[in-house]
Amino acid sequence: MMERDQLVRRYLNVDGFRRGAMRVLPRPVFDFTDGGAEDEVTLRRNEAAFHEPALLPRPLQGVAERDLSVDMFGTTLSMPVMIGPTGLSGMLWPDGELESHRAAAAAGTAYCMSHASTVPIEALPKTGHRWMQVFVYKDRGFTRSFVDRAAQAGFDALVLTIDNQTLGQRERDTRNGFSIPPKLLLKVMAAMAIRPNWLWRMRERRDFTFANYAAIEGGADRNTLAGRMNALLDPSMSWADVAMLRKQWAGPLILKGILHPADIQIALDHGVDGVIVSNHGGRQLDRAASGLDALPAVAAAAQGRMKVLLDGGIRRGVDVLIAKAMGADACLIARPQLWGLAVGGEAGVAAVLEILRRDLDRALCLCGVTRFADADASLLAPGVVPSTRPKAIAA
Ligand SMILES: Cc1cc2nc3c(=O)[nH]c(=O)nc-3n(C[C@H](O)[C@H](O)[C@H](O)COP(=O)(O)O)c2cc1C
Questions:
Q1: Could you tell me if 212 and 146 are in contact, meaning their C-beta atoms sit under 8 angstroms apart?
Q2: With left for phi above 0 and alpha for psi between -120 and 50, is residue 287 left, alpha or beta?
Q3: Cα–Cα distance between 118 and 104 in angstroms, integer?
Q4: What is the pLDDT of residues 43-80, one digit of tens each?
Q5: Cis peptide before 181 (omega within 30 of 0)
Q6: What is the rounded distance in angstroms from the CA atom of residue 216 to the CA atom of residue 228?
Q7: How far does the centroid of ligand 1 lie from the alpha carbon of residue 10, in Å?
C-alpha cells in the first residue's frame, strides 16, 4: 500500500484525489460521495464561493515560523481542518471510519463520527479528539440512547445535525439505481464488476451496515434501515430538543447546519457551545446559501461568544484561510477525506490532511501571517469584505 508522502506527491491536490476516487469506486458509490440534491446549485455554490474573495497579502512581516494550531474547546488542534461526519464511509474502504479517525488523530486534529457509521460508536479507539454526530428521531429515547453511548465512550463533543429533518432528493443516486433501499439493478452490478480492486478490497465487508442501529426495532440492515430513515427522523424537531440535549450532554454541544444569523442568539440562550455553518454539502436544501456566504453575518452575531466552524466546498488550504478571514474559527472537510479514503484508506486521508496543511501553511507564508489564529478580515480586498457579501441574510 502506498504511504502518505507517496500519495501526496502523486495526487498533488484534493481534485487529484477526487479523480482517483472516480477511478477506483463503482460509479454509483462515487456519485454517492460526490453528488448533491436536485440541480446541485448549492453544491456548486459551495466551491464557487471560495473563488470570489481576493486576498491582499502583506509581505515583509517576517514569517519564517508559522503556527497553524487552534484552540478547540480547551484542546489544541495542530491544524484548523477537522474531519466532518460522513455516513457509510465503510463502503469506500473496510472499516473506513477507523481509518479516517486514525489519520485525524495522527495529524493532531478532530474526527467527527457519523450516526450512520459502519462501525459502532464504542469501536472508535479513545485516541485524539473525537466528536459524535446525532439526529433527532421521532423516538426521543432513541436519540438519547446515542447521546448516552457517546458519553459512555468518552467522546469530547456532541454535534446535532439540524438540516436533515427529511432527506434531500439526491437525483444521481436515484438515477444510478443507488436508491434507498438500493435495488441490485443490472447497471449497479455492472458498475461494480468493472472495479475489481474495490470488489476485492471489500470482499469481507460487503455486508457493511448502520452499525449504531442494531438495537432498534427491525434491526440495522442497511437496505431496510435506509428506507426507513425518513420515517425515523422528526420534522417537528425544535429548540426544545436542543434544550433536551443540553440537559443530557455535559460537554461541548455543537449545532451543524446553521445558516441564519438570527439563530445564533437563540443557540447561545440554549447553552450551545459552537455552530457549524453548513448546508450539508449541498445534499439537502438545493438553493440554500453557501456556508461561506452565510458565514460573516453568523460570525458577527456570535461575537466570539461561541465557536463558529464552517464546512462545504473546502478544496484548498487557502480556502481555510479565506474562511478564517470571513469569520470562521476552523473548518471541517467531508468529501475530500472520503476521496482520500477511497484511494488509500488511512494513508489517503492522511495525505489529504497533509496537502491541506501544507497549502494552508504556504498561503499563510505568502500572506505574511504568522499565526492562523490571528488572520482576520484585513486580509480581504475591499468589495468582498464580509459586511458587503451577505446582504440578503443580514441579521
Ligand atoms: C457521503 C456523505 C455522507 C454524509 N453523511 C453525513 C452524516 O451522516 N451526518 C451529517 O451530519 N452530515 C453528513 N454529510 C455532510 C457533511 O458532514 C458535510 O456537511 C458536507 O459534506 C461538507 O461539504 P464538503 O463535502 O464539500 O466538505 C455527508 C456528506 C457526504 C458527502
A1: yes
A2: left
A3: 18
A4: 999 999 999 999 999 999 999 999 999 999 999 999 99
A5: yes
A6: 11
A7: 26
Q: For atom 11 of ligand 1, which residue has the closest CA?
A: 161
Instruction: Select from 119, 283, 310 the residue to mutate for testing ligand 1; criterion: most ligand atoms less than 8 Å from CB.
Output: 283
Alpha-carbon distance 196 to 70, whole Å?
Answer: 42
Q: Which residue minimizes the CA distance to atom 28 of ligand 1?
A: 86
Q: Is 270 an active-site residue? A: no
The answer to whether residue 392 scores a pLDDT higher than 60 is no
Closest to 46 in 3D by CA, of 222, 226, 287: 287
Q: Give the H or E element holding residue 111.
A: strand 110-113
Nearest to 320 by CA among 375, 387, 384: 375
The pLDDT score that the predictor gives to residue 193 is 85
Q: What distance in Å separates the CA atoms of residue 313 and residue 326, rounded to the nearest whole number?
A: 15
The Å distance, Cα 85 to ligand 1 centre, comes to: 6
Top-level class of domain 4-381: alpha beta
Q: Residue 378 Cα, ligand 1 centroid: separation in angstroms?
A: 31
pTM: 0.95
**Does the CA dihedral 267-268-269-270 come out positive or negative?**
positive
According to the model, what pLDDT value does residue 209 have? 84
pLDDT one-digit tens code per residue, 195-248 = 999 999 998 887 788 899 877 766 767 766 777 888 999 999 999 999 999 999
| Count of beta carbons in the 10 Å neighbourhood of residue 41 | 15
Ligand 1 atom nearest to CA at 278:
19
Q: How many CB atoms lie within 10 A of CB 374?
A: 10
Asked whether 270 and 246 are in contact (CB, 8 A), the reply is yes
Whether the Cβ atoms of residue 24 and residue 198 lie closer than 8 Å to each other? yes
Question: How is residue 263 written as a grid cell?
Answer: 439563530
DSSP H/E element including 257 = strand 253-258
The answer, yes or no, to whether residue 183 has pLDDT greater than 60, is no
Residue 309, helix vs strand vs coil: strand
